[in-house]
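To whoever is covering the structure queue this week,

Two jobs came back overnight. Logging them here so there's a record in the thread.

Job A:
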Amino acid sequence: MSAKTSPQSKRLPSAARTRRPAGAGAKLASTERILFVDDEENALEGFKRSMRGQFEVDTAGGGRRGLAAIQLSGPYAIVISDMRMPEMNGAQFLQHVRLLHPNTVRMLLTGHRDLDRAIDAVNEGYIFRYLTKPCNKEEIVRAIFLGLAEYRANVEQYNLAKEAQEIALYLAGLGQDPHERNPR
């Protein structure tokens, strides 16, 4: 069993699973796992079965369980949530995901009745894509590939910003202005 899928690695806090390249400081790991959240067990099983062999997928039955999964096993590259769930709807759940892990790409699966709320969520900036039910496998796979590309860009941007910050702190410690073009 690989370390990626061992039970022990799922229990480690995310910082313990983060890669630390020599000399580069802490960087986010590119896990590229997907969490699918829905209150319907049949939908969860169907999604997991249809994605088997293509993506590493975890599932959670509802928003509270989704947040627990993220805290236990996160971060995820992509979180896909159904809109209509008891206790917490998908848009509310994905807002929490954004606060916990801003680099995670968030997608909302919704029926036509919820379309206005899904569009609002996208426009407010915390949903990458919304998918309408019923959604065929090809459409979801295409959205996941686009989401993975977005996730990789998010992680790269985060890592570059962190590296630039570390360089600026280092240069400041040497008494050099990090904005100066030709440091002496």
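Job B:
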Amino acid sequence: MDFLKTLKQAVIAAVILLLLIVVAGVLYLLFFSSRHNFTDMPVVAETTQKSPFAPTPPAENAPEGVAIQAIAPTVAPGGMMSVVAATNATSRCTIKVDPAAASQTDPNLAPQMADDYGTVGWNFRISNTAPKGSSSLTITCVYRGRTGVVIGTYSVTGN
């Protein structure tokens, strides 16, 4: 019986303490918000510093290189293929895909210009009649007359 009495007293004490905390919080908010006008607070001055993550343009004489950053390793006929490459910012890049794997007139295979970070990518559909097995694609990028080339491979799964 003593245990139940002690438990009852502990529960009552916890409820009273919780009520006191809630009442104190409400009173604090009422007091604080009536004393401060948040619309008159000063605005922090904008900084003119560049973000450490801002892109840096390549030098005029930068050599051109290109590397595949991501490529779908396998794709089914009729499926979508994605490839992302890294190169110099603003490089003009083209992609050539195995003619048996994708239509060369697919508008998604149009030349692309790398963004300010040097990233360029394509998403295109693999032909429904693409043969099963290994296939390749070639990405060529040009920056100020200099050329970089990379060849990527992927597998077309069964028809």
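Note for Job B: The radius of gyration is 31 Å.

Please reply-all if you pick these up so we don't duplicate work.
Q.
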